TrEMBL record:
It comes from Streptomyces thermolilacinus SPC6. Residues 1-32 form the signal peptide. It comes from the Bacteria. Keywords: Signal. The keyword NAD does not apply. The keyword Signal applies. The lineage of its organism: Bacteria, Bacillati, Actinomycetota, Actinomycetes, Kitasatosporales. Residues 57-127 form the Transglycosylase SLT domain. This is Transglycosylase SLT domain-containing protein.
Length: 136
């Protein structure tokens, strides 16, 4: 029953359903279907970013994150040690936005947005630089 109902939802709604399912499971209810964390995380991080990043800058921010980490908040560059959605280097710089920087996409988004605004004027300024240099 749950599977047939959830199949009618959009991808964004499926993420919300998955989150609700996890919450129900934590409260002791019997779960019929759960989505893997990897499926829900990118949508969740994108939803958080849409709330935090100014609307006119979101596409630029999203393009950078897509290229840098594929919206994986645990992405790690094996050779440089860059980490997270925005591939901070050193990764520990993100601690200035919160002690949960390793695990919380919102903290990484906050830090990344501040970095892009400080260094490039905006996420679109950062994206323009990225297009010319393939890094930012």
């Amino acid at each position: 029953m749950f599977r047939s109902i959830s199949s009618r939802f959009s991808a964004r709604n499926k993420s919300a359903v998955a989150a609700a399912t996890v919450l129900l499971g934590a409260s002791g209810a019997v779960m019929a279907v759960t989505a893997p964390a990897s499926a829900a995380a990118p949508t969740s991080a994108q939803a958080v970013a849409k709330k935090m990043v100014p609307a006119g800058q979101y596409q630029c921010f999203s393009k950078i994150v897509e290229h840098e980490s594929g919206w994986d908040h645990t992405a790690t560059n094996a050779s440089s040690g860059a980490y997270g959605l925005v591939q901070a280097l050193p990764a520990s710089k993100m601690a200035s936005a919160g002690s949960d920087w390793k695990t919380n996409p919102a903290t990484q988004i906050e830090w990344g947005l501040d970095y892009m605004n400080d260094r490039y004027g905006s996420p679109c300024g950062a994206w323009e630089f990225w297009q010319n240099n393939h890094w930012y």
